[in-house]
Design brief:
This protein is mainly α. It is built from nine helices and no strands.
């Protein structure tokens, strides 16, 4: 999935304002101005579009975890030595930031009319070397982000 889409969808689902987004980036030691942020939020066919790289999206998601849950005194090694950003990692970081349990993840996917078993879901969070590890496809991540939008924005 395109990193800019992930950023845009998370922003929309959680109703994050420009300044909040800038603050979230700052929590992971990324200085961002509004003029730098706005091109990242554009679609790839719009003028002034700037592609969001994996490192910057990873930093945003790390900042989102801190924004939602608070800063930990002893950061885990994973944050000090980040793993490569994949759909699995994006899903894992969103799960951590939103403090979602397995049932929350499944119900969020169900809101987007996407059924998944507990076993299939847990396979996305396993180590890559585990025999039951499975790659999270774009469709699953897209449906999860759509479910987040329905979960958080449809409450009004």
């Amino acid at each position: 999935m395109i990193n800019n889409d992930v950023l845009r969808r998370v922003r929309y689902a959680l109703e994050l304002k420009d300044q909040t987004m800038i603050d979230i980036f700052a929590l992971s030691d990324v200085e961002m101005t509004r003029d730098e942020l706005l091109p990242l939020l554009k679609k790839d066919n719009e003028a002034d579009y700037v592609e969001l790289d994996n490192k910057l999206l990873g930093k945003f998601l790390d900042g989102l975890i801190i924004y939602k849950r608070g800063k930990q005194e002893n950061q885990p090694e994973q944050i000090k030595n980040p793993e490569p950003l994949t759909n699995n990692t994006i899903l894992k970081k969103l799960r951590i930031a939103l403090e979602f349990k397995e049932e929350d993840m499944l119900s969020t996917l169900k809101l987007a009319d996407f059924e998944l078993s507990k076993g299939e879901l847990s396979s996305f969070f396993r180590q890559k070397s585990h025999k039951h590890y499975r790659e999270c496809g774009d469709q699953i991540l897209r449906n999860f982000l759509q479910g987040l939008t329905l979960r958080f924005r449809e409450q009004d």
